[in-house]
Amino acid sequence: MTFNNRLQHKTDYELLMMVNEQYRYSKDLLTDLLVELDRRGLHNDRISELKQKINDYRQKHFSKVMEKKEEETESSPKLFTENSLFLFSFIFSTFFASIVMAFNLREVRKQQAILPLVSFGFLYTATVASISQHLDVMGVVAGVLLNGVGAYIILQFFWKPYIGQKKYEKRPLYIPLLIGILLTLPVLYFMSQAGMTI
User: Fold this and answer.
1) Of 149, 84, 77, 162, which is closest to residue 120 (Cα–Cα)?
2) Inter-CA distances, 125 with 110, 171, 186, Å
3) I want to staple 110 with a disulfide (CB 3.0 to 4.6 A). Which of 105, 118, 124, 125 is the partner?
4) What is the pTM of this model?
């Protein structure tokens, strides 16, 4: 038998005694009690006080729930995912992945790490380009693999220390992808015109 059913089988006197001894009961049961009292048309000062107390509790509880949701929303930054860093590194370069990661660092307010990050990405990419040129056709494969290593280094030395396991919302990839493509196409065009291999 549920609380509601039990209350319906109690006498008016028993219900009023529950109001007087309200400290013994949970807020949920007291809410059901008030519903039953209203159904029977029972009213007095103690019942009015209990109604006010339950209403105050509900408003306070609701406010806390909303505040918690707002805090969770505010504390969840929008970041490019770890997998997206590998994607950008493979398709474009480790330097481009470092730029994308820099946006993540700015989002979590770790701007002090941006310059070392971007410097690493630039130097690493320059090194990979130099190695790839000396390996001719195999340089393309080596470049892709080394870019993957570059992304891994970024995750180990910049993601883990500054972001770690922080909860975050996934940031859309289409804008950096579009920028990367627009920047890459002219480079590929001029390289083909100069007779350079990639």
Assistant:
1) 149
2) 23, 25, 18
3) 105
4) 0.58
